[in-house]
Amino acid sequence: MPPVGTAAAVPAASTGAVATTVAVEQVGLVFPSRSGEPTVALADVSCHFAPGAVTAIIGPSGCGKSTLLQIIRGFLAPTHGRLRFVAGPGDAPHKAPHSTPHMTTVWQAFNLFPWRTILDNVAFGLEVAGVGRAEREARARAALAKVDLAGFERKYPRQLSGGMRQRVGLARALVMEPELLLLDEPFGALDAQTRLVLQEQLAALVETSGTTAILVTHSIEEAVLLADTILVMTARPGRIAAEIAVDLPRPRSMATTRDPRFAALFDHIYGLLRQEVIRAMATEGGGA
Amino acid sequence: MTHQPSAPPAVTGPSVQSTPARSLLARLGEPRVLSWLSVVIVLAGWELAVIALALNPIYLPRPSRIVVALFEMFRTGGLTSDLIATLSRIFGGFFLALGLGVALGVWMATSERVRAVADTFIAALYPLPKVTLIPLLIIWLGTGGPFMLTISMLGAFFPIVINTVLGIGQCDQGLVLAARDLGASRRQIIRMVLLPSAIPSIFAGIRLGLGVSIILVVAAEMVVGKVGLGARLYLAGQVLETEQVFAVLIVLATLGIMVTKAQDMIDVRLGHWRVN
């Protein structure tokens, strides 16, 4: 474990490169419902995700934070507004200025292929990209070693605990060397203790890798511990209510949670979320 | 075996305390032994009953005679070529059904339009007892190889198509999203995600389908065949060669057991990753 508190407030820009910025411009998602009244999942969301930084999106359940992530990933088309990717000087020179960055996702439900070994799960993305067996296995092994899973290559997902499975999920996403890492409530399915340990490990991993990351979560602690910026969303229809900079020093660990600045940030975000959660419960109660 | 004083300790584990008689009895109680033993007892009882009651062998021949008839049929009666003919009809049609069935199943599961078109036809044809198609197929195809392959294929085709569609439909959508996220193309998703996750279901279809194929081929051979186990069975019945009738039945039963066991073995091999 690296020593805690070496005050390096520079947000994980270890490569010094400024890569693609993701700009979300007045994005909305409205879909028709059976009752006739269209459902507004997202209303007029504007935000941007700084390159090389970790941005957390936090909000009450059903606020559309995962939907926003799916829109950024390109799996859902917004009904309003647009996404813009702006290449930075850190991108490869041949890269078109507004091309979609290379993204991979870590899922709440892990989504590992149960019939593939751990090694073959991690190598999946390389395999579909046509990377030869020897090379992809070597790279998958290296990725597994990074998440402390060396020696589990020949196991199957069901033989691993939840925390280990999500580390496989992380290795599977990171082995692709994404320009943008999407984390969709990655620890939502894990028990509290496993969560703490994994949060700490993920903090260390994103600090060293320097990739741009977007983390969707409903854990305030997780957001503060991992992110450089936190976007707080309102209850449905989802909007960005606040953007909060997290100026806690890195590397961060569980010790960071005892920092008074951590407590202040936590309280501030909790105050914002509390109103939204109450509002969400009220509208859900009224709508149902 | 277990002489108390001077015998070297070559005896392992259980027989240290028990007498030979007791351990033999315990062995006989084991389910595996018991299942074989029961077969032996029934056969012995059958043999003795036929002798004791002096039954006419046209009605019920002795098991020992049936075994002799079976060997004779293999040795000089050309039963081997009948067996080969039947097996090649069953498996020829079955593998055709497997290829076509999985292909159509995948196509139906991944295209709503194809599914809309094919669903109606399958709903109409699936519940139809396939033996009822024998007369029509004979009119169209005659009674040769093409007819036999078609009837065999028809038996296995529908269970395989239906189970392929079902299996792919039950695939966890999260896995499809994960594969897309990692850059898999549509074809790669079908090959690397949808098909592997549908394999248990496809094998359930194969299990059903192969059984129907066997029934149909033997039935078709009984109606029109000149060679094949069904033809042999029918012929033996016509001339009251009851021993030969039983001999063919034994071959068919053995075939059934072997197919079932083979499927069980494949299931175990494929099922090693399945979530329990």
- The CATH topology of the largest domain in chain B comes to MetI-like fold
Q: How many beta-strand segments of chain B?
A: 0
The low-pLDDT segments of chain B are 1-11
Task: Please report the number of helical segments of chain B.
Answer: 11
Query: Helicity of chain A, in percent?
Result: 25-40%
- Average pLDDT of chain A, rounded to a whole number, is 83
Q: Major beta sheet of chain A, specifics?
A: 6 strands, mixed
Which CATH C-level class of the largest domain in chain B is it? Answer: Mainly Alpha
| Uncertain parts of chain A | 1-17
Protein name (chain A): ATP-binding cassette domain-containing protein
InterPro entries (chain A): AAA+_ATPase (IPR003593), ABC_transporter-like_ATP-bd (IPR003439), ABC_transporter-like_CS (IPR017871), ABC_transporter_ATP-bind (IPR050166), P-loop_NTPase (IPR027417)
Keywords (chain A): ATP-binding, Nucleotide-binding, Transport
GO molecular function (chain A): ATP binding; ATP hydrolysis activity
Textual characterization of the structure:
The complex is a heterodimer of chains A (288) and B (276). Chain A is α/β, with parallel strands linked by helices and 288 residues long. Chain A has helices at residues 65-73, 118-122, 124-128, 133-146, 162-174, 192-209, 220-226, 260-287; strands spanning 21-31, 39-49, 54-58, 80-86, 103-106, 180-184, 212-217, 229-233, 240-245. In chain A, the strands form two sheets. In chain A, strands 5-6-7-3-8-9 form a six-stranded mixed β-sheet, sandwiched between helices. A three-stranded antiparallel β-sheet of chain A has the order 2-1-4, covered by helices on one side. In chain A, a hairpin with a 7-residue loop joins strand 1 (21-31) and strand 2. In chain A, helix 4 (133-146) packs across helix 5 (162-174). By secondary structure, chain B is mainly alpha-helical. Chain B folds into two domains: 20-54; 72-273, Orthogonal Bundle (MetI-like fold). In chain B, helix 7 runs antiparallel to helix 9. The two termini of chain B are 45 Å apart. Chain A binds chain B through residues 73, 75, 103-105, 107, 109, 111-116, 124-125, 127-129, 156-158, 172, 176, and chain B through 172, 174-175, 177-185, 188, 192-193, 196-197, 199, 272-276. Chain B: This is ABC transporter permease subunit. Chain B: Its main location: membrane. Chain B: Residues 83-263 form the ABC transmembrane type-1 domain. Chain B: It is a multi-pass membrane protein.
